[in-house]
Amino acid sequence: MHKRGTHKKPEKIFSVDEANDRIYDIFRNHNFDYPHDKRLKLAQFYELLMKNQETENFTRLTKIRDVAIKHYIDSLIILNYTDLKFPLVDMGTGPGFPGIPLKIHFPEEKIILVEGVKKRIQFLKDVREKLELKELDIIGRYVTPDFVLPVKGLITRAVEEVSNTLENAVNCVQTGGEVYLMKGPNVDQEIKEAKDKMKHQFKLTGNHAYALPKTPHERRLLVYKKL
User: Cβ(142)–Cβ(193) under 8 Å?
Assistant: First the structure.
């Protein structure tokens, strides 16, 4: 996370067409094949995110290469390792990750972005309108144990510990539904603690270690089933 008080503004904001070309090159160089129409939406999202970053501090990634790899590929590569269940809640989506790239990828599926910071909520609503995204709900609040919205899937890229995330999500996922946790590589201790604390509510059914293609950035995708 960026340090509070540090606001990194983009040095340059590419137009949608140029951003689309650059994202195409970056994806190709990182062995990430992606359809043109959806990539164009990602380019539009990039422009909105960077224009917003000039006044608001929503992301520490302001170079298009970093956005393409650490936001876009990072959000979408999980589809190589699991089949998401919908409706899907993106818990603590921030400025829209992974929820907006996933919405672009799955235009017909229901996705619900949940975020507690008001300024981010307004930005997400603007993105929804300008990108003409359907079946996208935006809820302004934090996910806590008293948040009851029984969906089939919940995903988060938040930094909270595994057991805390599962505790907060316990009434947001229906029985048989799945929680997808996008984590860094060093989560073995968190997995153990979650097993001790949440074994009657959740079972670990997927544990996928991988790196973003042609980068040193290691990731772990954890999939938990609600019992």
Answer: no
Q: In the block, which residue shows the tokens 């235009």?
A: 107
Distance of alpha carbon 153 from its chain centroid, rounded?
A: 13
Which tens digit of pLDDT belongs to each residue from 162-217?
Answer: 999 999 999 999 999 999 999 999 999 999 999 999 999 999 999 999 999 999 99
- Residue 205 placed within a domain: yes
CATH code: domain of residue 192: 3.40.50.150
State how many domains the chain has.
Answer: 1
Q: Residue 9: inside a domain, yes or no?
A: no
Residue 75 falls within a domain, yes or no? yes
Maximum CA extent, the chain: 51
CB 140 within 8 A of CB 121: yes
- Residue 68 CB-half CA count within 13 A: 25
66 within some domain: yes
Chain centre distance of CA 11: 24
Which residue range(s) make up the domain with 70?
16-226
149/170 Cα distance (integer angstroms): 10
What is d(CA 176, CA 184) in angstroms, rounded to the nearest whole number? Answer: 25
**CA–CA separation, 102 and 205 (whole Å):** 22
For residues 63, 53, 99, 225, the Cα torsion angle rounded to the nearest 10 degrees is 90
Residue 204 token pair: 């670990």
Question: Is this structure's pTM higher than 0.70?
Answer: yes
* Range 199-202 contact pairs with CB under 8 angstroms and sequence separation of 24 or more: 200/227, 201/166, 201/170, 201/226, 201/227, 202/166, 202/226, 202/227
